[in-house]
Design brief:
Chain lengths: ~250, ~210
């Protein structure tokens, strides 16, 4: 029985400062095959279509259920999670590239440190004043709890940064994901006390003013977070904060 | 903590929509007089000459030159921060984002030519007042007509798409529904203003 093959065209790179090159691999088709599973097959038998044995392709993955964000890469030109990219739904040959908005460490493995640094800038945490017995803890506002839950799904995968034309070496924009996290923490019953701090941080260079409203972020977000809606809300909040900064003193 | 970037960005937004928007509307309004005939346009141009010279100069410098230079120079800085990617992410808003920047580059070149030739050289150096007859002779060259129509289209699109993004930047339209409504209204305005432009530009050719 002739087995069906799936062709992968992978952009590889040996180290952070090395030149990228292309290698092609064939993987046996099987039902429900996804990109991560196919990369695992290549790892088992890293032989290119020309029959050359090469070092296995390096990539990152963890949860395999679109929750952790680690396996984000550019698949057929689109930034997305490899674990939920089903082969049968992709045009073949399948092109895999690293998300070059981030520094490439090796092959498809990228360095997401900039998102962590951005979360530090916008104070993406709650200054907890002690801990609470659950009955004593301040309650979430039931009217905004759904929104907070939605934004909390953000897994810092970086799809929105890869798609955003204003994120890259040419700009200092921290990107949609970390910006919108400021809104999540501003909604929190304790986090809201630091809202002015976060809004002032967003007014800095590379903050929310670097958003150019291309709205690619909301199109590519694998967790369907309404990023542009919350960016507009933050624009409102930041404008009000600016008026306070001017007139409160 | 003084957020220079924030205030300059917001000033860029206000200046583009209100000040340069006014300049664009003034141009469309006055030039559309050509549709009614040479006398109507010359009448409108003579009306403007009635404004006392110092006030007129003040308006030109304070209401056009300074806002335009600021919007253009800071705009170039903003445009350089974008890596336009509608080829990879071909969504409507992303195309508009790229077009906003491409029209901006075209307008920088077009306005240097337009202001440099008509305002500085013809009106300033040679001292010839702008009139229907002057424009009629100028527009005998089809290349000039094409570049002027493109320049107007670029300015109109840049302004109308600017209304949509202004509403997002200022947090006026938050959800996708209101953002889409504003987008359709401003694109409707874009179509109307482009048609008016075609009509008054066409009035020099089809007589």
């Amino acid at each position: 029985m002739a087995e069906k093959k799936v062709r992968f065209v992978i952009e590889r790179q040996d180290g952070p400062n090395d030149k990228p090159y292309i290698q092609e691999f064939d993987v046996d088709w099987r039902p429900s095959l996804n990109v991560v599973a196919a990369l695992m097959e290549i790892q088992k038998n890293p032989v290119t279509v020309d029959g050359k044995r090469v070092p296995p392709v390096v990539w990152e993955c963890n949860c395999l259920e679109k929750v952790c964000g680690a396996c984000m890469m550019v698949i057929n030109g689109k930034a997305r999670q490899a674990c939920c990219a089903l082969i049968d739904e992709l045009k073949q040959p399948i092109e895999l590239k690293p998300a070059r908005t981030f520094p490439v460490i090796r092959d498809l493995l990228i360095d997401r440190t900039r998102m962590f640094e951005a979360l530090k800038k916008i104070q993406g945490w709650i200054e907890l004043d002690g801990s609470f017995e659950s009955k004593e803890a301040p309650i979430q506002n039931p009217y905004t709890a759904q929104t907070a839950y939605e934004i909390s799904h953000c897994m810092t995968c970086g799809c929105c940064l890869e798609a955003c034309p204003n994120v890259g070496p040419q700009s200092d924009f921290i990107g949609p994901a970390p910006t919108v996290q400021a809104y999540l923490f501003n909604l929190h019953p304790l986090g809201k006390f630091d809202a002015p701090k976060r809004l002032n941080a967003l007014m800095e260079k590379g903050g929310i003013t670097s958003c150019g409203n291309s709205q690619n972020c909301v199109e590519v977000c694998p967790k369907s977070i309404k990023l542009t809606t919350y960016l507009a809300q933050l624009n409102r909040d930041v404008n009000i904060q600016a008026l306070k900064n001017i007139f409160d003193n | 903590m003084f957020h220079t970037t924030f205030y300059v960005r917001r000033l860029h937004s206000l200046c583009g929509l209100f000040v340069l928007g006014m300049v664009l509307f003034e141009h469309i309004f006055t030039n559309s007089m050509a549709i009614l005939g040479p006398e109507a346009l010359n009448g409108a141009l003579e009306m403007m000459e009635l404004i006392p010279k110092p006030i007129f100069m003040g308006l030109e410098i304070g209401g056009i030159a300074i806002p335009l230079l600021f919007h253009a120079i800071y705009g170039i800085y903003i445009a350089l921060q974008a890596n336009n990617n509608p080829g990879r992410f071909g969504y409507l808003r992303n195309w508009n984002f790229a077009l906003q920047r491409w029209t901006a580059w075209f307008l920088v070149a077009f306005l240097i030519w337009h202001v440099g030739y008509l305002r500085f050289y013809i009106k300033g150096v040679t001292g010839t007042p702008i009139s229907w007859e002057l424009l009629y002779n100028y527009f005998q060259n089809p290349l000039v007509v094409i570049l002027y129509v493109l320049g107007m289209f670029a300015a109109i699109f840049h302004f109308c798409n600017g209304i949509t993004t202004f509403c997002m930047t200022w947090g006026i339209t938050k959800g996708p529904r209101s953002q889409n409504v504003i987008s359709w209204i401003s694109m409707g305005l874009c179509a109307v203003l482009c048609l008016i432009t075609l009509t008054f530009m066409g009035s020099y050719i089809v007589r």
